[in-house]
Design a protein that fits this description.
The chain is mostly helical. It has helices at 9-19, 25-36, 43-55.
């Protein structure tokens, strides 16, 4: 069996861009890349963390770190 959910970072960034046009997607892309370097950060955990940021009206991409 494959690892699920499968990483879909590009689509996650597209979702963030659609939901949060006030964010710099380059800034979010950089934060995501830094977080993905951690061994304990699965794509599933990243997905949840980004979704929480998107839902928080005062959050900014660096808050992911």
């Amino acid at each position: 069996m494959t690892d699920l959910p499968r990483p879909a970072t590009h689509q996650l960034l597209q979702l963030a861009a659609a939901c949060r046009p006030d964010w710099s997607i380059d800034q979010l892309r950089e934060a995501v890349a830094q977080v993905r370097c951690h061994d304990d950060m699965s794509f599933g955990r990243l997905l949840v963390a980004v979704a929480q940021l998107i839902a928080d009206p005062v959050a900014e991409p660096p808050d992911l770190l």
